[in-house]
Design goal:
The structure is a single chain. By secondary structure, this protein is mainly alpha-helical. It has one domain. Helix content is about 75%, strand content about 0%. It is globular and about 30 Å long.
Amino acid sequence: MCLIAEVVHSCSNEKVAQAAVASIGSEFAGKVRATASVYGMSMGAFAARTVIQFDRNCGGEEKQALRRIMKGADQPILIALEHILKPAVDGVVPGSVDA
């Protein structure tokens, strides 16, 4: 299974996504939790939903960029998850996540 497919497969599960976000670090997890609360979601549900939307909506260039980021990383799944979540966390845009 390709690494992007593994991220989507694993992190589409709310519990797995929550644990993975927590593994990235407490500062990032706090930002994800705060963003999730804006949408009335748990951190895991928000992360899982964002990963699913990324998989459905991203183009080939975005996937290529993600592959480059993951290549050679010690924790490629966590790096990918952080990269996928960062835009949603940095700029909370109402309506960007379907609750």
